[in-house]
Design a protein that fits this description.
The complex is a heterodimer.
Chain A lengths: L7 E10 L2 E8 L2 E6 L7 E4 L3 E6 L7 E7 L4 E6 L5 H36 L1 H12 L5 H6 L3 H4 L3 H5 L17 E2 L5 E2 L4 H10 L1 H10 L6 H10 L17 H17 L36 H24 L1 H16 L12 H11 L20 H6 L12 H16 L11 H11 L14 H4 L2 H23 L6 H18 L4
Antiparallel strand pairs in A: 1-2, 1-7, 2-3, 3-4, 5-6, 6-7, 8-9
Helix pairs in contact in A: 1-2, 2-17, 6-7, 17-18
Chain B lengths: L1 E4 L2 E4 L7 H15 L3 E5 L6 H15 L6 E6 L2 H22 L7 E3 L11 H4 L2 E5 L1 H4 L1 H7 L7 E5 L5 H9 L1 E4 H24 L1 H13 L2 H8 L11 H5 L9 H19 L5 E3 L1 H12 L3 H5 L1 H11 L9 H15 L4 E8 L7 E9 L3 H10 L2 E6 L7 H6 L3 E7 L8 E8 L16 H17 L3 E6 L2 H13 L2 H8 L1 E4 L4 H16 L4 E6 L3 H5 L9 E5 L9 H14 L3 H18 L9 E6 L6 H4 L4 H4 L9 E2 H15 L5 H4 L7 H5 L1 H7 L3 E3 L1
Parallel strand pairs in B: 3-12, 3-13, 4-6, 4-7, 5-6, 7-12, 14-19, 14-20, 15-17, 15-18, 16-17, 18-19
Antiparallel strand pairs in B: 1-2, 8-11, 9-10, 10-11, 13-21
The chains are: A alpha+beta, B alpha/beta.
């Protein structure tokens, strides 16, 4: 088994496995163990198959290392070299520690995911056994449309997790603490850094530009917290710091946003007023005006705070929806270039029309128009209510038949005259009573026995599996259409073949 | 549905109707029948516009000779567009029901770039435009002069109509204005010289016309063809233009003299306040300008500009402004005041002289409208107290009514928070404005609310300066950081573009479930023009009572005038003004019966009867004794309870028969009885 071309990374002698002495080899892609004196491996695991390694506690007499596989099996190695057991184990452990993650990242995510899905969903597991293990369809085909998410770029599907937004108060969480000697301590966590980066891409850019070439990470954050950029309420002291560019960039971004204007015309304050008075007319503002020119320092600082909050909230909001934003943006771009030019007086922009309609709508004044539903049309409602009943060989009696016969019997009984000379024998009479008692031959049709009580549960289970498997097969079958590749064509033929052979008796 | 309003067939384009809509139409019809004016207050979100349109159009169709035109004035562009949209809906309903394509012509004028003085305006059955087209004499002269007398004029959202009137008649003159005016006059002189050489006949013809006087205008006014221009006094129409300004050169010389005089007036070192007669006396003493030629100034300039065939009148806006001022100041001896301020109060070192010629009497601008048109309807969601409008606008209405909002569930929850949890009285009054304890308690209120109110909260402050100070203070105390844990914060600024963006982001944050707070300013653009329907505003917090900035000299002059002329006490007017703005602010959040929201009045002064009593009836009737002087904690408890109740599903069936009626329900005797109680007559 040991191919010579494999690169051996580590060899540890005197390693026992199942009470046998031997040698442990760590190679490029697998770990292997061979008993002493033999030149073949009795144990060999690909790194990709290993879920994790465990080691015995330091104080223990036996120095061991256990490998747990994805299948759940485990292999334990006992390092038996008296003098260097611990050192050997550490060496192997260290190397594995480096190697395992590499492989894990590649294959195992998928494998683990499949494993998890099968474990969590017994029906899926059964289906897997029915179709894949029995080789009706290949494993790839089976997983192809179930596991769409794994290879997909969209992690939401397979993680089943929502994208987490950013807390609006993440900067508040980095409350500085005084360290007792004229300094401040900021506590940063990975989450907060992530939040800062997502909210302020400009900072992230600065980070990747400067760390670690120019600054250490610590220096970078120290400067960040010292910068005017962080303390936006302070008036710029004119110091040259690396973040002044960020502030400019933000400013630019904000400006461009403002210039772009708003999409919803109902919140556009610029076009709110139909006619502002001509210059020189009107009662001049009754409030003391605060034009930029003659603001006091305090006022400018207040204004800076307000601006900063608006900007921060906008950035947090944008960070939360950055992923979904791109297609929407494209859509709006294309719609604005499709001839509906904005300043055309004859076209109302569609957004505006919709918003106006919404604004004047009184939903409660209108008759409710729920979406129309199609009523379920059942031919035999009793069958829908009771489920399948065993088919009886005798004729099916309609309710009209029963009513007729009841009437007939009533009529008969009314005119009944006992003919005492021709009574039946006592044995015949008692057998007739038995036959007419509950459970008797003639009473079977009356006691409606549900089929699920008559059929043994194994058969039922089997039937369920067959049903699910046939359904899955059909799904594969239909998903082949339109057949436009030879592969699909082959698949259709295969499934048809299997279907006819294995599952036709179901139909 | 088709309604029978006292014998009038009204097409109403909905399947159901609110009881108050029926009541509103009833009052409206009575007003039209009486050919008089009306003041009607009905909460927003109860379908006021569609009720107005439905009834007046039905009236117009039934009595085409009695009412020939509907002139619908609203305030903002979105409002105007909404009216058009509702009108379209109504017209579609008409053609669907009657089967005939409608022959109604509706015309909307909005924004000056589409300003259309097409004769169609004369033929249209319905005209929708902004207030200014009727109230601002400069525009009204161009657009609305020839509108038929038998028109119904509606001023919607009319709670601020007095300010619009005042604005349209007030003039401010700065040094810059005078410099530009100087250029204008120079240009005029040059043009006259040129024309004199090439086409002297033209000037002679003008002279001849001026001798004839403004007879044409006089005839028109006497025969009632035109809407009167309040700038143009009656008397001068009968007179010829005085000889001193009849020739073009004399007039330009006259303008120069006037200009020099104004320049000298702007060179003052201290604040001057005087009346129009004082000003006229001074100008006569100093530069021997008589009252009479001043009165003809505006008209004379128009004539000159026409004669000189000047295409771009906008270039001459400065000289037009000055001549309008000349005419106004010499025409009205009352109702105006002149204030000359050498510098702004806040920056006494920077010379920036301004001459304010302020109108103090809104009735001057609106008088021609009331006189000319047979019915003028003043309506809004907040017009309380109703009786003050007829007083300050000087007219006699035949109907005054305030309508409540019939509710199947109480979807508004007004709370008056007068104390902090530490029992500190909450108020924005001047003495405690800087008080740390008040600011902290206000912050605490917002913080607590941000934790329990879903989606959007809008908070209003009394002024920008006040808001900026409070925000800075909250920031320093770390209150804003704590609020950020619950919601994002957006703040109105004085830059409209910036605020628009903040607004859109605010709505986005409400929409995606994150929730947001908008800090805004009463009397600002947001408070006047933006609706916060449903989740865009689940709570409105009014921090303080939004009194107008009382230190302004113009306001003081106006208050004095109101006291002397209309016997309205200063305090009454200030409170009325503050309360109408407060009502506007809190009313932003309730935009219909399916909507719901908290209205938090955070100032102990709201609990007083003189304040509370000036709120609209539909808000007032939900304030009970238990919600008068709450602490922050108590308000939070009540709010929690309210929000939990409101979050339950609310279906159409819940409303039917109570606050929503079918035609059959409407026609029942019992309901008609009830409906008569909805309109509260004063």
């Amino acid at each position: 088994m040991a191919s010579l071309s494999e690169e051996v990374l580590l060899v540890v002698k005197k390693v026992r496995q199942r009470k046998q002495d031997g040698t442990l080899y760590l190679m490029a892609e697998r770990i292997a163990w061979g008993p002493e004196g033999k030149d073949r491996f009795t144990v060999s695991h690909l790194y990709a198959d290993i879920r994790c390694q465990k080691i015995s506690p330091d104080g223990k007499a036996k120095v061991q290392l256990q490998l747990v596989l994805h299948t759940g099996e485990s292999t334990t190695f006992h390092f038996a070299n008296e003098s260097s057991a611990l050192k050997d184990r550490e060496a192997a452990k260290e190397l594995l520690q480096q190697l395992l993650p590499k492989f894990k990242k590649k294959a195992n995510k998928e494998l683990e995911e499949k494993n998890r899905m099968l474990q969590e969903d017994p029906v899926l597991f059964q289906l897997y056994k029915d179709l894949v293990v029995s080789q009706v369809i290949s494993a790839e085909e089976f997983w192809a449309n179930r596991l769409g998410g794994v290879n997909n770029t969209d992690p939401t599907l397979f993680n089943n997790k929502q994208e987490v937004g950013i807390s609006g108060a993440f900067l508040a969480d980095i409350r500085p603490q005084t360290d007792g000697c004229n300094g401040l301590r900021y506590n940063l966590t990975a989450d907060i850094i992530e939040s800062i980066f997502r909210t302020y891409p400009a900072v992230k850019q600065k980070y990747s530009e400067n760390v670690p070439h120019n600054l250490t990470e610590k220096e970078f954050w120290t400067r960040f917290f010292q910068s005017h950029y962080f303390h936006r309420d302070r008036i710029n002291t004119g110091t040259q710091d690396i973040f002044s560019e960020c502030a400019k960039q933000d400013e630019k971004g904000l400006k461009s946003l403002v210039v772009q204007g708003v999409k919803n015309p109902l919140v556009d304050l610029l076009s709110l007023e139909d006619k502002t008075l001509d210059e020189g007319y009107g009662v001049s503002t009754t409030q003391p005006s605060t034009s930029n020119a003659n603001r006091t320092v305090k006022e400018s600082s207040n204004y800076a705070i307000i601006k900063r909050f608006n900007h921060h909230s906008a950035m947090v909001l944008a960070a939360g929806s950055r992923k979904g934003e791109t297609p929407a943006d494209q859509a709006s771009e294309t719609s604005s270039t499709d001839g509906n030019s904005r300043d055309s007086d004859f076209f109302q922009p569609p957004v505006k029309k919709v918003k106006l309609q919404e604004a004047i709508e009184y939903e409660d004044l209108q008759r409710e128009n729920r979406p129309k539903t199609v009523a379920l049309n059942l031919k035999k409602s009793d069958r829908y209510a009771h489920g399948p009943v065993p088919l009886q060989s005798q004729q099916y009696t309609t309710s009209q038949d029963i009513i007729n016969s009841v009437n007939y019997i009533r009529h008969e009984m009314a005119n009944y005259k006992p003919n005492l000379t021709q009574v039946v024998s006592s044995t015949a009479a008692s057998s007739a009573i038995v036959a007419l008692s509950p459970g008797g031959v003639l009473m079977q049709a009356g006691a409606q026995q549900a089929i699920n009580q008559m059929v043994p549960s194994e058969v039922q289970g089997e039937l369920k599996h067959l049903y699910v498997a046939a359904g899955e097969l059909l799904r594969h079958f239909w998903s082949c259409f339109p057949v436009n590749t030879p592969f699909l064509e082959e698949k259709v033929i295969n499934i048809t073949f299997i279907g006819v052979n294995d599952y036709c008796h179901l139909c | 549905m088709k309604l029978n309003i006292e014998g009038l067939l009204v097409y109403f384009p909905y399947d159901y109707i609110y009881p108050e809509q029926y009541s509103y139409m009833l009052e409206l019809k009575r007003t039209l029948d009486a050919k008089g004016h009306g003041v009607l207050e009905m909460p927003s979100g109860t379908g006021k516009t569609i009720s107005l349109l439905s009834l007046i159009i039905a009236y117009q169709r039934a009595f085409p000779l009695e009412v020939t035109k509907l002139i619908y004035c609203s305030r903002t562009v979105p409002e105007i567009e909404k009216v058009i949209e509702e009108l379209r809906k109504l017209m579609e309903f008409y053609s669907k029901e009657t089967g005939e394509s409608n022959n109604f012509l509706a015309l909307a004028l909005s924004s000056r770039k589409n300003l259309c003085i097409h004769p169609e305006i004369l033929h249209a059955n319905i005209v929708v435009y902004s207030y200014h087209y009727l109230l601002d004499p400069k525009i009204a002269d161009l657009v609305s002069k020839e509108l038929a007398k038998k028109s119904v004029v509606v001023f919607d959202e009319a709670h601020n109509i007095d300010n619009v009137c005042i604005d349209s008649m007030s003039v401010n003159i700065t040094r810059r204005t005078l410099d530009r005016c100087q250029n204008n006059v120079d240009t005029l002189q040059n043009t006259i010289h040129k024309i004199k050489e090439t086409d002297a006949a033209k000037l002679r013809e003008e002279y001849r016309r001026l001798v004839e006087g403004l007879k044409e205008a006089n005839v028109a006014r006497e025969t009632d063809i035109y809407l009167a221009n309040p700038v143009l006094p009656d008397e001068i129409l009968q007179e010829a233009v005085p000889g001193t300004i009849r020739t073009a050169e004399h007039f330009v010389g006259f303008l120069r003299r006037f200009l020099e005089y104004l320049k000298s007036r702007l060179r003052v070192q201290h604040v001057v306040q005087e009346s129009a007669p004082q000003f006229l006396k001074d100008i006569f003493d100093k530069v021997c300008i008589d009252r009479k030629p001043l009165r003809f100034c505006a008209e004379r300039l128009q004539s000159l500009l026409r004669t000189l065939e000047i295409a771009d009148i906008a270039d001459f806006s400065a000289v037009t402004l000055i001549s309008n001022f000349a005419t106004l100041v010499s025409t009205y001896s009352q109702g105006f005041t002149i204030i000359i301020e050498p510098f702004e109060d806040r920056t006494p070192t920077i010379a920036n002289p301004v001459l304010h010629f302020s109108c103090m009497d809104p009735s001057i601008a609106i008088k021609p409208v009331f006189q000319r048109f047979q019915s003028v309807i003043i309506t809004s969601g907040t017009l309380s107290p109703l009786d003050i409008y007829p007083r300050i606008l000087d007219f006699r209405p035949v109907t005054m009514a305030s309508f409540t909002m019939t509710l199947a569930r109480t979807c508004l929850c007004p709370l008056i928070v007068g104390r902090g949890n530490d029992q500190v009285a909450l108020s924005s009054k001047f003495e405690t404005r800087e008080d740390f304890a008040v600011i902290r308690n206000y912050g605490n209120l917002l913080l607590e609310m941000s934790a329990i109110v879903p989606d959007g909260i809008v908070a209003f402050f009394t002024s920008y300066v006040y808001m900026e100070n409070i925000v800075a203070s909250w920031y320093e105390q770390g209150i804003l950081e704590n609020i950020q844990r619950n919601k994002l914060i957006f703040i109105e600024t004085q830059d409209a573009a910036e605020t628009s963006m903040a607004l859109e982001k605010y709505q986005e944050a409400c929409e995606n479930g994150r929730g947001a707070i908008l800090l805004s300013v009463a009397r600002g653009k947001v408070s006047e023009g933006i609706d916060f329907v449903h989740h865009f505003g689940r709570a409105v917090i009014m921090f303080g009572v939004p009194y107008v900035y009382t230190q302004s000299r113009i306001l003081k002059a106006r208050l004095e005038y109101l006291r002397d002329q209309f016997q309205i006490r200063e305090n009454d007017f200030l409170t009325f003004d503050a309360m109408r703005h407060a009502a506007q602010c809190v009313g932003r959040a309730i935009r219909g019966k399916t909507d719901y929201g908290l209205m938090i009045f955070a100032d102990k002064r709201y609990a007083r009867a003189d304040k509370r009593g000036k709120l609209p009836r539909w808000i007032q009737e939900h304030i009970n004794d238990g919600s008068l002087n709450l602490t922050v904690d108590e308000a939070v408890q009540l709010a929690k309870h309210f929000l939990r109740q409101m979050a339950q599903p609310f279906r159409q069936e819940d409303q039917l028969g109570l606050s929503l009626l079918t035609l059959e329900q409407l026609q029942s005797e019992e309901m008609l009885q009830k409906i008569t109680q909805i309109a509260h007559q004063t």
